[in-house]
Each structure stands twice: as structure tokens, then as C-alpha cells.
Amino acid sequence: MTDLIWLVPALPLAGAVALLLAGKPLRRIAGGLASLLVGASFVVSVLVLIDLLGVGAEERTVAVKIFDWISVGSFEAPVELRVDPLSMVMALTVTGVGFLIHVYSIDYMHGDPRYSRYFAYLNLFVAAMLTLVLANNLVLLYVGWEGVGLCSYLLIAFWFERRAAADAGKKAFIVTRIGDTAMLIGIFLAFSTTGSVRFDEVFGAAGGLASGTATAIALLLFAGAVGKSAQLPLHVWLPDAMEGPTPVSALIHAATMVTAGVYLVVRAHAIFEASEVALGVVAVVGIVTAVYAGLSAIGQDDLKRVLAYSTISQLGYMFLAAGVGAYAVAIFHLVAHAFFKALLFLSAGSVMHATDGVIDVTRLGGLRRRMPVTAASFAVGGLALAGIPLLVGFFSKDQILAAAYEAGRTGLWITGLVAAFITAIYITRAYLLTFEGEPRSELHPHESPALMSVPMAVLGVGAVLGGLLGASAQTGRVQRFLGPVVGEPEAHAAAGALSEVGLSVIASAVAVGGIALAWALYGSGRVDWQALRARFGGARRALSRGFYVDDAYGALLVTPGKAAASFSASVLDTRVVDGAVNGIGRAFVRLAGVGRRLQTGLVRTYALAFLLGAAALVLVLVVRT
Amino acid sequence: MRTPIAFFLVVSALLFTIGTVGVLVRRNALVIFMSIELQLNAVNLTLIAFSRQLGEVNGQVLAFFSMVVAAAEVVVGLAIIVAIFRRRVSANVDDINLLRW
Amino acid sequence: MDLIVFWIMAPVSVGAAVLMLLQRNAVYAALFLVLNQFTLAVFFVLLDAHFLAAVQVIVYAGAIMVLFLFVIMFLGVDRREALVEPIRGQRGLAIGLGLLLAAGVVLAIGLGIGLARAPGPAPGGDNIEAVARVLFTDYVFPFELTSILLIIAAVAAMVLARRKARGLPDLADEAPAGREPERVP
Fold first, then answer.
1. pTM (two decimals)
2. What is the nearest CA distance from C86 to chain A, expressed in angstroms?
3. Where does C1-81 sit in CATH, by number?
4. Contact assignment for B92 to C81 by CB distance below 8 Å
């Protein structure tokens, strides 16, 4: 079965090609076809996983070479897929969540004029993402990495008639490109120092690298991860990316693509560990982003932007986990997050579907009575996100905090608790304002159709029961399964004073406290939150604009950039460049005035020149022998 | 005694040269075209002569392909000549000199 | 025997080629080319290439030359070239360079394989069978490709030479009119 792994990316790719070439005739079945192919991809992944589980833990890494791609001198970049626990966990997440979101999209996108194209892009995205996670060398990984970036661009700007959507697409593409360029340099550096781009050789050689080189490679790769996973300071594109269709936000900007950075760090952990500072940087960037984005999420009125900042914050959590060496926990949180955040986004999409696009929480309210399934889904997702015990988010977040504590990084632990507190506040606020209280506008929402509800229900079950797969950092199924790739989870001798149970209790208490505070403010009715909004207008604006990072970029980079561009356009270009170009042009016109006399237009003259050359060549050859 | 291969090659060289001169001095597009055919034939002779020298048939296969390509070329070339003739009422290549300064 | 045939055919071949050049009437030129191609077929036989000798006669001297004659007749046989060469120096340069080329090639042959070296032993077996074996094994893919080439050529010829049909654009007539032909001084 393992040999069939190539089918996993190939099936969605085939769907993308078919829908791009024959979108019109396939329009009626586009959604079904695309969903079916991703579903088939999921089935193949499961079969491969069963195969993998059938062999010993040490034999679970298989490289399946499909064909030679680039082979120049010592540079070898085959199209080779890597089947190991890490890539399989990622592939199952991508295909599983991807399948549900495809099904959800069938109804959500129903009636869109570019229905077929939407599914073509979605399939293409899944294919690229699978290439990314299954690649066995850095170059193929980079192909997938850019592929998902392209699809992200295409799907954010899917409704390109809207100026905001088109701009958001460009922004996402350009901002992530900054990170991608650094990452590409990192790949070059890795090849020039280790002489290979294949994972086994690069990571095998990581231990022998000079500390400075390892740091450089690690930080360059991490810069790519920062761009793709929307960490500070390259996070600005993700909130804007919410201009795309909501299922796209769920799939690309919550569950899969943005987690590629985490995957990269975990996959390349050997290099990060070979450096003294790289892991520290990862952890600090992660935790700072987690707090920053959490605070920003409190200030958002757009439900989708709340979720976007929440995603940035949770990705920060994953980087925190990777940064303290708890790779398996990072991946577990990634999978858990894929479930509950996709669920939250699909619920938000369901709200948008019902309210004809109104998503401003200050204008919603009281939706629970009209949309019970959606409200329940959002509640489950929100509780999982907040980390309420026994839901999947509780286990994964608790393990991250425990890992930070046990690594002796008390500062990171405390900051992580703060972030968890903030998380509970913003998600509770979002839920209460949207679904509880009295309706604040004249809307007549209705529950969404079954094709949308069922995927939400499935994801909800995943968010509730997912904890069974990884209830403990040492003995959880997912963590043990990942062990051979990321290092066996160590049974920590408790480095601090608190036991694991104690840590869990503290984390749960923080989450409950956050929910309680949010309820007191927004749900109890005893506090007039609208009055508070007006009173702390400055602070609210700072939060809602994400602490003005975007504005700072605008002032520091975009405005001077535009000024420089207009200067060079009006002065530099017309005078210097055009002057030089015109001058050279005129000189050549004069020169050509002489040369053009050779062009008689008579074929026979040209043929004579031909003969002259041929005769000369023959004579040269004769003389040389 | 068998004829030395070099004799064929020399004949081929002469035919090729005659074809070349024909392309250069004649102005009737049809005759020029025939001269090109002569050149192609000369090359085929060379190919077959070398094929004989080496004692294998790959050269003959190449000559065969060259004949097929020549046939295709003749068809298209004559069609072009007919098309030009319809427009210019002339088969003189010196009349076709639009591509000039 | 071999040598005698060669020495008869070689002057005929070269002579036919030269005479083809000197004909003012295109029909005569075509007929001399046919003669030349027959002599080439004889050379092919001398070189044990029986299959290609047959192809040469049937395809070249037969089909292709008939096509030539057809077009000559179609365009009118009585058009004769003026004897004066309009491009200055063209004729002299062409003949001079041509001779140079011929001399160079002959020299190369002499230096390369020697003018009087006898050929190796004739390959045994049936020539046609040998060609067929190679053609349909090693070269079967190019062989199939040539069929595509011929179809394209046939379609191209139809498109190029077709008179304007109702409702269909005619490529030849649509060509830009441009300047009237100018005579080069």
C-alpha cells in the first residue's frame, strides 16, 4: 500500500486539472467530484497508515521515489515522497479536514458564477499541501510551499471584483514572499554546507554543522515559517485574508496551510537543535505572537477577524511548543487546532450564509434560537479553543504549558497562561455577542442545509473526542506514534515544584476564569458593554487595529515606497533612464541606417551569404585536420 | 573490383555544389526549388555511401527519413509558390522583396 | 562491372545536373532532374541500398517530380527568365564560392578516407529486410511521427493554396499588400 502514496497528492491534482480544463461541462458535478477525490485521497492515506502501523516503530520511515526531477552534478532533487509518522499525521489532517470542508463548500458556494474554478483551486491547494508535507527533500517541499502560497492568493482574491479581496490576496502573496525568500536562501545554504537537499542527509549532517551555520540555516527556514504561519512581524496578511470565502479561511488559513511553518520547524528540528539560539527565538516569537494576537482578537468586531487573530495566536502556541522541544505536542496541537478552528470557521460561515454576509458581532446576537446546530458547533469549538477540560484543546494546550514549565522556562509558562486567559475571553465574547442576548438588527437567519451541518457535526465530534488520541504527552497515541521522527517523549523528572495534575488544574482554572470574566462583561447583562466600548475607545481602537502594526508598515514601508516609486517614475525614469534609453536607441538607429543596406530583401543575396559561411566552415575543418 | 566509396562522395559533392549554384543564380522559384531537391539528393547519396562503408543500415534509414521530410517540404513549398504566384503573377524570387529596408 | 557502371553513370549524373541549371524552360529543367534522379537510383543499387533505390524512383522521380511538373504547367510554361543577372556580382561569386566549396569537400574526402580505398565487405542478407528491421524497431517512433508530419504538410498545402471559399478567409489573399515590387539596380 505504501507504494500507492503517490495517489494521495495525485488525486486532488487530477481533479484540479480536470476542473480547470473542463470547468463548464463539469459545473454541475464540480463540487461532488472535488470532494470525492479528496475523500479518496483520505482513504488512501488511511490505508497507508494501517500499513505503517503494521510494522515496527523503527521501520516506519519509507521513501517512495516517483521519478528523477532535477539531477545536475552532485545536486539531486528527485520527486520522492516520504512516508513516516509525521508526514502521515499531516496528510491525514489535510485530507480529512479538507474533505469535510469540500463537502461544506458544495452548498456554501452554490450558485457562485465561478463554482467550478473554486473547486479547482481548492483541489489544487490540497494537492500542493500534500506535496509539501509528503516531500522528502527541501526542494520538493519548497514546490509545495509555493504551491499553497499561490492557491492561498487565488482563493483569498477569489471574489476579485471586490477591491478589498483583490488587495488582500496581493498582500498575502507579497508578505509571505518575504519569508519565502529567506527560506529559499536557507535551502541554498543547507545545500552548500551539507551537499544535499534530501531530508535524511541534511538533518543527519545537522549535528556536525558549525553552530553559526546551523543558526543561520535554522533562522532562515524559520523566517519562511514566520511568513507562512503569520507570526510576528509578518502576521499582517492573515486578518485581511478573511476576504476570501469562509471555507477557504477554514481550510487554508486555519487548519492546514498556516500550520506548514510549524510542520517545517518540527521536520527540521535537528537543525534547530544544532543551534544555540534558534529554538529560543522560535519559542519567544511564538509566545509574543500568542499574547499579541490574543489581545488583538478581543478588539475585533468582525467574527472572522476574531478567528483570524485567534489562529495567529494558536500558531504562536505551536511554535512555543516546538521552541521548548515538545515537537510531538506541537503537532498534536496542530491537529487539534485544525479540528476546532475549522469548526469555528465553518460555524462563522454558516452565520454568514444565514445573514447574507453580515458578520459584525455588534449587529448580531440571539442567533442561537434560530440556528441551534451552528450555535452548538461554535460553542463546542470555542470551548475546545479555550481549553475546557476533556475537550481536545485542553489536552494539547495543557501539554504545551506543561512542556514549557518542565523545561524550566517559568517565564514562558506564565506568559502562556496569560495567553490562555486572553483566549478564553475573546472566544467567549465572540460567542456571546453572536449567539446569545437579543438580536440587534433586523435579520431573519435560518439554519444551514445538511451538507453544511454534517461536516460541522463531524468536526465537532472530532473536537470533543480528539483528546482520546493524545491525552498525555508521554503516553498519548499521537505522541507515541510521532516518537520515532521527533524523538521519544521523555518522562520528565518534574523540574519544578508543581506536578502534572497541578499544572492541569491551574490551566483549567485560567480558562474558566477567562470565560467567567467574559460572561460577566458580555453575557450577564449586568455590565453595559456598549458603554464600556465608548469609554475606552482609544484602547479598543488599538486592539482592533492590531496595535497599529499595519499602520506602522504603511507609514514606514508603503508610503516611502510609493514616494520613491513616484520620484523614480517622474524624475529618474523620464530623465535618466529614458534619456539613456533614447540616446542608445538613437545611436542604434544611426548605426542601423548603415547596416540595413545589407538587407536587400532578396532571398538570393541571403543564400549567397549562407554559401560563404558554409564554404568557410568546410575550409576551416579541412585546414585543421 | 568494387567502386571506392570516395567516388560516390565526390559525385555527391559535385551535385551538391551544382545545386547550390543553381539556388544562387536562377531566379525562377520552381527551378530554385528543383536545385534544392538536387542538393537533398546529393546528401542522401552521401548518407547511403557512408552507410555502405560502415556496413550497416542506419544511414539508409536516415536517408529514408530525409526523403519523407523532402516530400513534405515540396508539398508545402509548392503551395507557397502557388499562393505567391496568385498574388504577384510571378515566380521570380527577386520580385519577393518586402522584407527589406 | 561495378566500376564500369559507375563511370558511365557518373558523367550522366553530373551532366544532367549541369544541364538542368542551364535550361531556361522549367519543364526541361524538371526532365533533366528526373534523369539525374534515375542515375542516383543506380548509384543506390551499386551501394547495395536496393530499398532506397526503389523509393528514389517511385517517390522522387515519380511522385514528387510529377507534382513539380503539375505546378509548372499550372503556372504557365512559357515564362522564361531573362538572361541578365540583376544583382551585381551574384553570378560570379556564386560560381566561385561553389567551386571553393566543392574543392574543400573533395579535399576533405581525400584527407579523410582516401580517394581509392575499396569499400568493406557487403553486408550479407536481404537489404530490404535489414532496413525494415531497423525501421520498425529502433526507429518506429520517428517513423510514426513522419506520418503526422505528412498529414500536417497536406493540410498546410490545402490551406495555403486554396482559392478564397465562401465565408472562409483566404490566407494568401489576406497577406498585406505592401509595396509594389521594386527592381534592384
1. 0.65
2. 11
3. 1.20.120.1200
4. yes
